[in-house]
Structures are given as C-alpha cells and as structure tokens.
Amino acid sequence: MSQDNTPSETASNRPDSQSTASSRLPRQAVFIVVVLSLFAVEPAAAQTNAVCSADNLPSMIEGFFQLTTALGIVGLAVVWQADSLIEMFTITPEQKKGLKRHKRSAMKSAVVLVALGPLYTVAGSMMNLPLAQCVDLAPW
Fold first, then answer.
1. What whole-number distance in Å separates Cα of residue 103 and Cα of residue 77?
2. d(Cα 19, Cα 9) in Å, to the nearest integer?
3. Is the pTM value of this prediction over 0.70?
4. pLDDT < 50 regions, the chain
5. Tell me: the pLDDT tens digits for 89-106?
6. Ramachandran region of residue 129, left (φ > 0), alpha (ψ -120 to 50) or beta?
7. CA angle in degrees (0–180, nearest 5) for 73-77-80
8. Which residues cross the membrane (predicted)?
C-alpha cells in the first residue's frame, strides 16, 4: 500500500481532454451566436422605418436630444466658471496648467455635443438613413 510518485494515466490524459473541451466551447458559442443572429435579426430587418411610423417617438427623441444638449452647455458654463474661480486661488503653475487643460477638455466636449446632432442630420439625410429622415437632431 505504498504510494507511487508517478502520475496515473488518467491524470496524464486530463490536460488533453481539457484542451479539447476548452477548444470546443468557443466554437460552439460562436456557432450559437451566428445561428441566433441569423434568425433573430431577420424580424428586425423586416421592419421598415419603425421609428418614423411611431406616433410620438420622433418628437421624444428630438426633445431628449435638445434637453441633453442644453444640459451639456449648462454643464460647460458651470465647469468653466468653477475652474476660473479655482484658478484665482491656485499658487503653483502645475495646478493652473491642469485647470486650463480641464477647461479645454470641457470646451471640446461641448463643441462635440453641439455639432454632433446637426452633423448626423445632414450626413444621415445624405446617406438615406431612416432616423435622419424623420428626426431633426439640431439643438436649436
């Protein structure tokens, strides 16, 4: 009844069976995703312009976009004023550089937020995107 230090045959075969099982799992997952996407996407693709055919959905999307744009511009004003106020009380040049960098990034975000809606409206209508034909994303 002494114990051997040699591995048994089942233990030596275990890594091979684990690697085979682990290689099957991603293949099966990919196959399932592809099959489901073929059948699940078909009904959604059959719908034509579902957003525009809804009663209040285009106006709700426009209102949401105008609200978020207005909140973004107000947020820019608050951040700009707060950074300017804090900048008056900073002593080190590194802190001032950091605040200027923060103000610059806030301005970039606001410009992107304001320009994105009209850009999508113009580019979407040129590319005949269905959402751009019935929803005006200009914030003004």
1. 10
2. 16
3. no
4. 44-46
5. 888 889 889 999 999 999
6. beta
7. 130
8. 29-46, 66-89, 110-131
CB 95 within 8 A of CB 83: no
Structure tokens of 119? 């850009």
Give the length of the chain.
140
Residue for token pair 């684990």: 18
Please state, in angstroms and as integers, the Cα–Cα distance from residue 55 to each residue in 117, 123, 128, following that order. 22, 25, 21
DSSP string, 51-71: HHHSSSHHHHHHHHHHHHHHH
Helices (H), the chain: 9-46, 50-53, 57-89, 93-126, 130-134
Query: Who contacts 10 (Cβ-Cβ below 8 Å, separation ≥6)?
Result: none
Per-residue CA distances from 98 to 88, 104, 108 (Å)? 13, 10, 15
Residue 117: exposed, middle, or buried by beta-carbon count in 10 A (0-12, 13-18, 19+)? buried
Which among 120, 118, 136 has a CA at the least distance from the CA of 60? 136
CA-based nearest residue to 115, from 84, 69, 76:
69
